[in-house]
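On clarity, I found the account of how folds are encoded harder to follow than it need be. For illustration, here is how one protein appears when written out as sequence plus structure tokens:

:::
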Amino acid sequence: MGASIPQNVADMGDVDLLAAVLGSARSSQVLAAELLERHGSLEAVCRLGSPALRGRGIGPAAARRLAASLEIGRRTLARCSEPRPVVRCSADVAAHFTPKLAPLRHEEMWLLALDGRNGILAERRVARGDRSTCAAAPSEILRAAISEAASAMVLVHNHPSGDPAPSGDDIAMTRRMIEAGQAVGVPLVDHVIVAARAHTSLADLGLFRPSTE
């Protein structure tokens, strides 16, 4: 058997990384070393396709695993280099979510995880409700935001009734999330309610301003 994979793969050398993908047999280390010696670098190996890899003593299954791993790397790099959509105001949020949420006949709540410049890191559904309610646990929302390494977050949900005015429950839940987000350092910066023809931002309504009482 080959060497075990450490918990932190960033500590592995190029040969060990290639060998880990190729398989656990000791010969994988030899094949990985030969690939790097023949082609000079991981970048050069990345340019090889699955047929070319099979022609270098690598079995079909291992060649497909390696090709798939390299494709993951390519796609990740490409997506990281793309500019992230930026949320500048509640209208941006509504424009993004209205086509997705307004046609639904049940309520859904979504999280927008934002980076430090209000770029969208990720969007995740955090709750699914019925025609008039959608209960979302603050702990689940925070867990999702933290898992995405969010610097801030926006909540979005729909009102199938067509009226985007916030209910008492919407306001109470938003206030709880404002406090919870502040406590963990991931502030909630808006909660937008979308409907077919309009939207409401609880930030625009002043809910996020400090109380003057």
In short: The domain at 90-201 is CATH 3.40.140.10 (Cytidine Deaminase; domain 2).
